[in-house]
Write a structure and sequence with these properties.
Blueprint (H helix, E strand, L loop, with lengths): L1 H8 L6 E5 L1 H14 L3 E6 L12 H17 L5 E4 L2 H11 L4 E2 L21 E6 L9 H9 L6 E6 L5 H10 L4 E4 L5 H6 L3 E4 L8 H8 L4 E4 L5 H4 L7 E3 L4 H13 L2 H11 L7 H14 L1
Length: 294
C-alpha cells in the first residue's frame, strides 16, 4: 500500500514500474498496471522450474497459485523480460507473448590465471552461492565424500543462508577438508586462488558467479539446471555438466580433473571466448533501448 501511495503522489505521466521475480511480479501487474494504470516492466531472474520445486505441501500450493497467476497476468505487462534465452523461450510459451532476453550485465574483463592446476596435486574447489535449498551445496559435499581422492580436495563455500548449519554438520561428521566463508566482500581473491568452480543449483535464471568464474579463467562444472547453464557453458563446449543432484557423476568429474585437467582447460578457453554477450555495455544498452520504446 505504501507503493500505491507513492505512485498516486507522483504526477508524472510517464511512470514505469520495474518489478522482479514471480512472487512480486504478479501483484505488481495486478495492482500497479491494472488498478493504477501505470506501465510495468517485468524482469524475471529465475526459470519457471522455480515454481515446480516444492519443499512441502504449503510451498506447493503457493507456487501453483503463482504459476496460475503468471499464466493469466503476465500478458498485461508492457514489457516482460528475463535474464536468459532459455528462460525467455519457456516463459513465452506459457504466457503466449513475446519475452525479451536481457542478460545479467556481469562481465567486465578477462583475468588470465598465471598458474594452472597441476595433475595429481590437491584440488582447490570453489562454490559461491547462497547456502539454500535452491543452490544444493549438499550435492558438492556428497560428491567429495564419495570420491577416491577425498583427501586431495580442499573445498571453499562462500555464502550465507539457512542451510549453513546443516552443511557445517555434514563437513564435520564426514571430516571433509572444507570451510564455509560468509564474508563475500572480496570475491576476486577466491576466484584467483582456486582451481575448479562447481555450481549445483536446482534452478536459476542466469547465475552471475558462474560468469564471473569464467572471466577469471576457471574451469567450470555445473548441474544442467534451467536456465542459463547451457548459455554460459555453450551447450557443454565451455564446461562439464551433470544431472541435477547426481553427486556420483559429479564425483567422477572431480576424479577426472585430478588426473587429467587438460580437457577442462580446453573447455574453459572456449567458454572464456564467448563471455562478450554478458558484457555490461551490451546489456545496459539493450535495457535502455527497451525502456525508450515503452
Amino acid at each position: 500500500f505504501k507503493i500505491l501511495k507513492i505512485i498516486n503522489k507522483d504526477k508524472n505521466k510517464n511512470k514505469i514500474f520495474f518489478s522482479m521475480q514471480y512472487f512480486c511480479n504478479v501483484w505488481s501487474i495486478l495492482f500497479i498496471k491494472l488498478f493504477c494504470n501505470v506501465k510495468t516492466f517485468i524482469y524475471e531472474i529465475n526459470h519457471l522450474n522455480e515454481l515446480k520445486n516444492y519443499q512441502n505441501n504449503i510451498d506447493k500450493f503457493k507456487k501453483n497459485l503463482i504459476l496460475f497467476l503468471v499464466k493469466r497476468l503476465y500478458k498485461y505487462s508492457d514489457i516482460v523480460s528475463t535474464n536468459s534465452a532459455e528462460c525467455s523461450k519457456d516463459l513465452s510459451n506459457l504466457i503466449n507473448r513475446k519475452v525479451i532476453t536481457i542478460y545479467n550485465p556481469c562481465f567486465e574483463k578477462l583475468t588470465l590465471k598465471k598458474n594452472k592446476y597441476k595433475k595429481q596435486t590437491k584440488i582447490r574447489i570453489l562454490n559461491i552461492a547462497r547456502l539454500s535449498y535452491q543452490k544444493d551445496q549438499i550435492t558438492i559435499l556428497k560428491a567429495i565424500n564419495s570420491t577416491k581422492i577425498k583427501n586431495y580436495v580442499k573445498l571453499t563455500l562462500v555464502g550465507f543462508g539457512p542451510l549453513k548449519k546443516d552443511l557445517s554438520n555434514f563437513i564435520k561428521i564426514n571430516k571433509l577438508n572444507a570451510k564455509i566463508i560468509s564474508n563475500k566482500k572480496k570475491l576476486n581473491t577466491y576466484y584467483k586462488n582456486n582451481d575448479l568452480f562447481l555450481y549445483t543449483s536446482l534452478y536459476e535464471g542466469l547465475p552471475t558467479t558462474v560468469v564471473e568464474a569464467a572471466s577469471f579463467s576457471m574451469p567450470i562444472v555445473s548441474s544442467n539446471f534451467k536456465s542459463g547453464s547451457e548459455e554460459i557453458l555453450c551447450s557443454g563446449r565451455g564446461g562439464y555438466t551433470f544431472d541435477i543432484r547426481d553427486y556420483k557423476k559429479l564425483s567422477n568429474i572431480i576424479y577426472k580433473f585430478y588426473f587429467n585437467p587438460k580437457p577442462f582447460y580446453k573447455k574453459e578457453k572456449y567458454c572464456r571466448k564467448n563471455l562478450y554477450k554478458f558484457s555490461k555495455y551490451i546489456n545496459l544498452k539493450k535495457f535502455n533501448s527497451v525502456l525508450e520504446k515503452i
